[in-house]
Amino acid sequence: MIVLDGALLALQRHARGWAAEMAPYSAEVDRDPAAVTRHRDLPVYARMATLQVPEKYNSAPLVVDGHRYYLVSALEQVLHAEECAAVDLGMTLGAPGAPMAGATVAMLGDDRQQEWFYGRLLERVTWSFFALTEPHGGSDAAATKTSLRARDDGEVLTLDGAKRYVTNSVRARLGVVFARAGAGPLALSAALLELPTPGYTAEPIPTIGLRGAQLGAITFDAVEVPPDRVLGRHLPPIRRGMLGWLSTLHKLRPVAAAMAVGVARAAYEYVVANRRDPSAAERLELDRIRRRIEGVRQLTWRAAAAVDRDPADGALGSAAKVRAVRLAEETTLAALGFFGTGARLDHPALDKLARDACGVEYMEGTGNVQRLGLFGSLTRNEVRWS
Fold it and tell me: Which of 64, 136, 77, 139 lies closest to 304 in space, CA to CA?
């Protein structure tokens, strides 16, 4: 069992206060995802935009009770993510900053690329995107069709192809795009983009849940990429592409799991606050849900601690993601059941939680992908349970 120390407890309390600032705007953003950018000056958004910038580039970290935070560790991100998701998961995903793109730049970027990228984030409130998933191959990097090829003059590369279901791609000014520079698994590359740029178009994809994230469909038509914006050129080929996106997903899967825990917690707390005179059976069910939430939360914390020790250790993250998604989906549906027929109409906050819960399944790999990865880790005896 993981017990949080004083510094992590202080971060958790602070994140809870920050997250509460989003609550008044939740319904507005659910109706109109574009409203996210109108609230860029919210203190929670203004600070989230500059978190997850490494200490080397960030002279103004978050300071709480004398503790300094950069939110670059998975465990810190997990604590922050649960608190924000318990208020509004869509707005959390739609926040400015660089949760996925920044993690990739940290792993694959050289000093100049990192300085350029993080410098852009610190200049002003900026959204970013991480583009891996494609229309026909999903998030299977080996099936990537988007290409990154040298022009005839050899001085500029061009990016052609399409990506789908990319968070914040419509509102972003920075992005990381995975593309293929040739045949074979070692030919995958990640390129940095600064927007707007000719040939780049992003259109919103209508969704039922997670509307604040404003998922987008991207098309690249001969988008020019300077060679110095290709990540990992200083690294061996095996570390440039597949290892980059795998390491990013390993680190962020516990965060996705924590978001699902936050959604489940919000549904549980809503029932506790609004269900009048619950029966004995209902009280027992609520206690079972509470204990289940705590158990999955502990698994999520352990997964974060594991990937902080070793970025390649993603097995517990996969387990946490599978368990947390099921928890969120089942808890939100159970919460609606406490209020009977018409609960979705009478309790729109619960309806929103149920819609958002279904979207977590598709973040950082679906359940089947996680199960396959976890099975491989188990058969290779790679899982460390303590």
Answer: 77
